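Quick one from the shared queue. A colleague (R.T.) flagged Xanthine dehydrogenase family protein molybdopterin-binding subunit as missing a structural entry in our internal table.

Convert sequence to structure tokens.
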Amino acid sequence: MQNTNSINRRAFLKLSGLTGAALTIGFYFPALAEESASIITAETADSLGIALNAFISIDKNGKVSILNHRSEMGQGSFQAVPQMIAEELEVSLDQVSINFAPGHQNKYGSQLTGGSSTVRGAYKHLLRTGATAREMLLEAAAKKWNVPKEECYALKGEVIHRPTNKKIGYGELVEEAAKLTPPKQVTLKERKNYTIIGKPLPRQDTPLKVNGKAEFGLDKKLPGMLYAVVERSPHFLGKIKSYDDSAVKTMPGVKHVIKVQMPVFNTTREGIAIVADNTWAAMQARKALKVEWDTTGFEHLDTTGLYNRMKEDLKKPGLSQRTGGNFEGMYAKAAKKLEAVYETPYEAHACMEPLNCVADVKDNKCEIWGPIQAPDWIQRDLADRLKMPVENIAVHMTFLGGGFGRKAFTDYTTEAALISKEIKAPVQVVWTREDDMNQGPFRPGAVYECKAGLNNGRIAAFQTKMAAQNMNHQWPHADKSNFNDSTTEGLPEAFINGIDHYSFSDIPTESPIPVMWWRSVYSSTNGFAYESFMDELAHAAEKDPLDFRRQHLREERYVALIDMLEEKTGWKSRGKNSGWGVAITECFKSIVGEAVKVSKQADGKLKIDRIVAVMDCGWYVNPDIIKAQVEGSIVMALGAATNHETHFTDGKAVEQNFHQYQMPRISDVPDIEVYIIENEEKPGGVGEPGLPPFAPALCNAIFDLTGKRIRKLPFNMNEV
């Protein structure tokens, strides 16, 4: 399987040789993302003037081309999408090539790669598309042989006649198959009959990334392309007061120095773009630029001030997302009461690949290339900002060197498009690591107040209040009276269902610091507070922490996960002097339980000895991808718990690069054991749900070993 550049529909049809020499089918969405969407052939789409969502094309050589409607940022869509289609199409993966689909929601439905939604959002469409193509090929072969279709079956890119063992390759059938009407109903395989799905097949984008053939945003080159870097205010709302570019304009390679504005939610970020004939020249010229910034009219907060504000906010009435029963009444009567406050830090996304974007704006058209998580969002946003028809905006995805939510935003693509429009040439805008780290948006820090009442060793009343910036309140015309709709995110649904008296609310903290999605979104902060508090409640109830969770998560699916976690850790036989902690969270329809074992070394410092994770993501495609994503999530969670955070001084981000924002080292991470629950549940997410339970599990283990409660992240493992 190999990657080519992202291509538009016309190029895809041309590539497929659709003048009767290929079978190309895809979805037609009468309304976005409806499950009843119709599958039609390319010929039918052209005759009706319909925008075909072309997922599959099979040429006369039997090669299968697939359009991947989601980005590939390491999470495995380039493997999972063809693996699903190949299963029902009955081809081997070496017969498949895959290309990025351009941004177009009307054709592809949502293309946002976020919320761990690629498989769970599209699996039915993809399976059905592969099965439909298979049935059309079977019908074409049956007609060619003049035999009943029921006597034919497909295997490894061939149709075989069972009674005679005659075989014919897909390539010889596509011309006749393309003339057929796709069946409206197809029978999908049962999981027990899968030969590709559910198998740990090696990722076929890996060789491309090893040998350098994979195209990332920085690899994209266009004829006549110029290169730009942008000097932006270190204060998030700073404006340009004046600038002196006289020295810059005399430097080798410099072509333009222009003002540029970039939208950031409901504000505008100003900057000076230096455009040159190579990136190095632009970066050197940037150092010679003299800018005076206007930093008046907004708060210059520091970290201490931010958290003091959040703590004060907790004293205010909250905006209630979800309540049940009478918390206050039951809490007042509870036999035992417990309260705790937890703090989580602001975090940078810190992708290995900093932001970058190539833009070419000319006449009434715009083309964009780059590491983009949401091409359909970018297309609509640019159409609005450039006042162009949406069909005149082409957004092409490259591979992403990490995304974590940051590359779903629209700021950096708009900035590149506006620079290209101004200089009337294609341009590549490159963010340095420092730009990427100090401009945000960031994961919001948060403070949680948790209260609960216990009766007879069970939770009788449970309340949380979260003080944090609400991401949704930053958008233009946002209704700031709305509660944060993610206040319960990360908490197992069965837990809420099992408690009669509860309250979940938030107080939106105001700050000029831009914040946005970060891997697992609010679950990454909620999970720490909720599962740390659950451990405190278990000890207050004098119950084993895992048994206490089993007591409150009594639905079958959760019990099965707890049983496996108990088995794989040897929980019941753990030594009295060992430090074990556990946490269970639910995120994007997947449930993950994690257990951590810690010990003290001879020098008295803490060491993580073992990490065990159990993932219940329902129906899944590739176990190796699941294990890799859980491992990556745990390492990212470890960093956010013990290594790094973004601080602010005078309204500016302090951490500029990895010498300050330090990542976990290989030596910090023990072997991670990942176990996958097998069941018939609908697919859940994989890329993010493994992150939330780690920090509370680690801190609960430290309490088990040392008796010290950690309620504030990050903390230094060597200082506990």
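The longest strand covers residues 254-264.
Residues 29 and 37 are 5 Å apart (CA to CA).
Added to the table.
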